[in-house]
Amino acid sequence: MTRRLDSKTHAACAGAVAIGGANFIAVSLSNRELPPFFGAALRFALAAALFFIMARLWRVPLARGRSAAGAAVYGLLGFGASYALLYYSLVGLAAGTAAIIVAAVPLFTLAIAVLQGQERLTVRGVVAGALVVTSIQFTASVAARDRFRPAQDLLRHQIPDGDPAKNFDRALTVLVEQLVESKVAARRRAAPPLPRNVVPYESRPSGVAPRDPRTVPPRARDPG
Questions:
Q1: What pTM did the predictor assign?
Q2: What are φ and ψ of residue 144, in 5° steps?
Protein backbone atom coordinates (compact mmCIF):
# COMPACT_ATOMS: atom_id res chain seq x y z
CA MET A 1 0.00 0.00 0.00
CA THR A 2 1.50 3.32 -1.04
CA ARG A 3 1.05 6.42 1.02
CA ARG A 4 -0.16 9.50 -0.77
CA LEU A 5 2.01 12.54 -0.20
CA ASP A 6 0.23 15.69 0.94
CA SER A 7 1.17 19.33 0.59
CA LYS A 8 2.90 19.38 3.99
CA THR A 9 5.26 16.62 2.91
CA HIS A 10 6.15 18.46 -0.30
CA ALA A 11 6.67 21.69 1.63
CA ALA A 12 8.92 19.96 4.16
CA CYS A 13 10.98 18.41 1.36
CA ALA A 14 11.32 21.76 -0.43
CA GLY A 15 12.36 23.42 2.82
CA ALA A 16 14.98 20.77 3.48
CA VAL A 17 16.43 21.23 -0.02
CA ALA A 18 16.50 25.02 0.32
CA ILE A 19 18.12 24.95 3.76
CA GLY A 20 20.58 22.25 2.71
CA GLY A 21 21.57 24.17 -0.41
CA ALA A 22 22.06 27.42 1.51
CA ASN A 23 24.09 25.59 4.16
CA PHE A 24 27.28 25.61 2.08
CA ILE A 25 27.06 29.35 1.46
CA ALA A 26 26.34 30.03 5.13
CA VAL A 27 29.34 27.98 6.22
CA SER A 28 31.60 29.81 3.74
CA LEU A 29 30.46 33.16 5.16
CA SER A 30 30.95 31.89 8.72
CA ASN A 31 34.52 30.84 7.96
CA ARG A 32 35.37 34.43 6.96
CA GLU A 33 34.82 35.65 10.52
CA LEU A 34 35.24 32.57 12.75
CA PRO A 35 37.71 29.66 12.86
CA PRO A 36 36.04 26.66 11.18
CA PHE A 37 36.00 24.31 14.18
CA PHE A 38 34.82 27.05 16.52
CA GLY A 39 32.03 27.99 14.13
CA ALA A 40 30.89 24.37 13.86
CA ALA A 41 31.00 23.85 17.63
CA LEU A 42 29.08 27.06 18.28
CA ARG A 43 26.43 26.16 15.72
CA PHE A 44 25.68 22.73 17.12
CA ALA A 45 25.94 23.82 20.74
CA LEU A 46 23.16 26.32 20.09
CA ALA A 47 21.18 23.68 18.15
CA ALA A 48 21.56 21.17 21.02
CA ALA A 49 20.36 23.74 23.56
CA LEU A 50 17.38 24.64 21.34
CA PHE A 51 16.33 21.02 20.86
CA PHE A 52 16.70 20.30 24.58
CA ILE A 53 14.38 23.22 25.39
CA MET A 54 11.86 22.01 22.78
CA ALA A 55 11.95 18.50 24.24
CA ARG A 56 11.26 19.90 27.72
CA LEU A 57 8.41 22.09 26.51
CA TRP A 58 6.77 19.28 24.54
CA ARG A 59 7.55 16.77 27.32
CA VAL A 60 9.40 14.42 24.99
CA PRO A 61 11.17 11.70 27.04
CA LEU A 62 14.95 11.59 26.61
CA ALA A 63 16.64 8.45 25.38
CA ARG A 64 18.23 6.15 27.95
CA GLY A 65 20.52 3.16 27.98
CA ARG A 66 21.50 1.70 24.63
CA SER A 67 19.25 4.16 22.78
CA ALA A 68 21.10 7.09 24.33
CA ALA A 69 24.48 5.52 23.49
CA GLY A 70 23.43 4.94 19.87
CA ALA A 71 22.13 8.48 19.52
CA ALA A 72 25.36 9.85 20.99
CA VAL A 73 27.54 7.84 18.60
CA TYR A 74 25.41 8.86 15.63
CA GLY A 75 25.49 12.51 16.65
CA LEU A 76 29.24 12.41 17.21
CA LEU A 77 29.97 10.90 13.79
CA GLY A 78 27.01 11.95 11.64
CA PHE A 79 27.01 15.58 12.77
CA GLY A 80 30.10 16.31 14.87
CA ALA A 81 32.79 14.74 12.69
CA SER A 82 31.13 15.25 9.32
CA TYR A 83 30.33 18.93 9.84
CA ALA A 84 33.72 19.62 11.39
CA LEU A 85 35.33 18.27 8.21
CA LEU A 86 32.83 20.20 6.07
CA TYR A 87 33.64 23.47 7.84
CA TYR A 88 37.37 22.85 7.44
CA SER A 89 37.07 21.90 3.74
CA LEU A 90 35.12 25.07 2.95
CA VAL A 91 38.13 27.14 4.02
CA GLY A 92 39.72 26.30 0.66
CA LEU A 93 36.85 24.94 -1.45
CA ALA A 94 34.16 26.99 -3.12
CA ALA A 95 30.61 26.41 -1.91
CA GLY A 96 29.50 25.07 -5.30
CA THR A 97 32.36 22.56 -5.47
CA ALA A 98 31.61 21.29 -1.97
CA ALA A 99 27.93 20.92 -2.86
CA ILE A 100 28.79 18.78 -5.89
CA ILE A 101 31.00 16.50 -3.77
CA VAL A 102 28.30 16.11 -1.12
CA ALA A 103 25.78 15.36 -3.89
CA ALA A 104 27.63 12.07 -4.45
CA VAL A 105 26.65 10.88 -0.95
CA PRO A 106 23.68 8.77 -2.23
CA LEU A 107 26.08 6.64 -4.27
CA PHE A 108 28.33 6.06 -1.23
CA THR A 109 25.29 5.31 0.92
CA LEU A 110 24.07 2.72 -1.58
CA ALA A 111 27.51 1.08 -1.76
CA ILE A 112 27.88 0.89 2.04
CA ALA A 113 24.34 -0.48 2.45
CA VAL A 114 25.03 -3.18 -0.15
CA LEU A 115 28.35 -4.14 1.48
CA GLN A 116 26.63 -4.45 4.88
CA GLY A 117 23.82 -6.56 3.43
CA GLN A 118 21.11 -4.06 4.31
CA GLU A 119 20.02 -3.48 0.70
CA ARG A 120 20.31 -5.14 -2.67
CA LEU A 121 22.11 -3.52 -5.57
CA THR A 122 19.45 -2.53 -8.07
CA VAL A 123 19.51 -0.66 -11.34
CA ARG A 124 17.00 1.83 -9.92
CA GLY A 125 19.27 2.70 -7.00
CA VAL A 126 22.34 3.15 -9.21
CA VAL A 127 20.48 5.29 -11.75
CA ALA A 128 18.89 7.45 -9.03
CA GLY A 129 22.24 8.07 -7.36
CA ALA A 130 23.94 8.82 -10.68
CA LEU A 131 21.25 11.33 -11.63
CA VAL A 132 21.97 13.32 -8.48
CA VAL A 133 25.58 13.79 -9.57
CA THR A 134 25.14 14.18 -13.33
CA SER A 135 22.31 16.70 -12.97
CA ILE A 136 24.87 19.23 -11.71
CA GLN A 137 26.78 20.10 -14.88
CA PHE A 138 28.90 23.17 -14.37
CA THR A 139 30.19 25.28 -11.51
CA ALA A 140 32.13 28.53 -11.95
CA SER A 141 33.64 31.10 -9.66
CA VAL A 142 32.15 34.56 -9.17
CA ALA A 143 34.90 36.12 -11.32
CA ALA A 144 34.23 33.64 -14.14
CA ARG A 145 30.52 34.33 -13.92
CA ASP A 146 31.13 38.08 -14.22
CA ARG A 147 33.32 37.55 -17.28
CA PHE A 148 30.69 35.27 -18.81
CA ARG A 149 27.86 37.80 -18.62
CA PRO A 150 29.24 40.06 -21.43
CA ALA A 151 29.41 36.98 -23.66
CA GLN A 152 25.73 36.33 -22.97
CA ASP A 153 24.90 39.91 -23.96
CA LEU A 154 26.94 39.69 -27.17
CA LEU A 155 25.31 36.39 -28.16
CA ARG A 156 21.78 37.55 -27.32
CA HIS A 157 20.87 37.83 -31.03
CA GLN A 158 21.85 34.19 -31.59
CA ILE A 159 20.62 32.78 -28.25
CA PRO A 160 17.67 34.93 -27.17
CA ASP A 161 16.82 32.84 -24.09
CA GLY A 162 20.34 33.32 -22.69
CA ASP A 163 20.73 29.62 -21.90
CA PRO A 164 24.11 29.25 -20.08
CA ALA A 165 24.93 25.89 -21.67
CA LYS A 166 24.31 27.17 -25.21
CA ASN A 167 26.22 30.39 -24.55
CA PHE A 168 29.16 28.52 -23.10
CA ASP A 169 29.28 26.12 -26.05
CA ARG A 170 29.15 29.01 -28.55
CA ALA A 171 31.76 31.06 -26.67
CA LEU A 172 34.06 28.03 -26.45
CA THR A 173 33.67 27.39 -30.19
CA VAL A 174 34.59 30.99 -31.04
CA LEU A 175 37.57 30.86 -28.67
CA VAL A 176 38.92 27.68 -30.28
CA GLU A 177 38.54 29.18 -33.77
CA GLN A 178 40.42 32.32 -32.73
CA LEU A 179 43.20 30.26 -31.14
CA VAL A 180 43.59 28.18 -34.30
CA GLU A 181 43.74 31.30 -36.50
CA SER A 182 46.29 33.00 -34.24
CA LYS A 183 48.43 29.86 -34.19
CA VAL A 184 48.40 29.61 -38.01
CA ALA A 185 49.26 33.32 -38.30
CA ALA A 186 52.14 32.90 -35.84
CA ARG A 187 53.54 30.02 -37.89
CA ARG A 188 53.38 32.09 -41.06
CA ARG A 189 55.24 34.97 -39.41
CA ALA A 190 57.88 32.59 -38.08
CA ALA A 191 58.47 30.92 -41.50
CA PRO A 192 61.74 31.98 -43.26
CA PRO A 193 61.27 34.39 -46.21
CA LEU A 194 61.52 33.03 -49.74
CA PRO A 195 64.41 34.11 -52.03
CA ARG A 196 63.58 37.04 -54.26
CA ASN A 197 63.93 34.97 -57.44
CA VAL A 198 61.39 32.37 -56.21
CA VAL A 199 57.70 33.09 -56.78
CA PRO A 200 55.34 31.55 -54.25
CA TYR A 201 53.34 28.67 -55.68
CA GLU A 202 49.93 30.18 -54.93
CA SER A 203 50.83 33.43 -56.81
CA ARG A 204 51.92 31.74 -60.05
CA PRO A 205 49.55 31.74 -63.02
CA SER A 206 47.74 28.51 -63.66
CA GLY A 207 49.74 26.03 -65.73
CA VAL A 208 53.08 27.83 -65.26
CA ALA A 209 55.77 25.60 -63.78
CA PRO A 210 58.39 27.03 -61.44
CA ARG A 211 61.55 28.22 -63.22
CA ASP A 212 64.90 26.68 -62.50
CA PRO A 213 67.24 29.38 -61.11
CA ARG A 214 69.98 28.06 -63.42
CA THR A 215 67.94 29.12 -66.49
CA VAL A 216 67.42 32.69 -65.26
CA PRO A 217 69.71 35.24 -66.96
CA PRO A 218 72.67 36.33 -64.78
CA ARG A 219 71.37 39.91 -64.44
CA ALA A 220 68.00 38.70 -63.18
CA ARG A 221 69.51 36.49 -60.54
CA ASP A 222 69.75 37.49 -56.90
CA PRO A 223 73.09 39.22 -56.31
CA GLY A 224 73.40 37.28 -53.03
A1: 0.53
A2: -65, -35
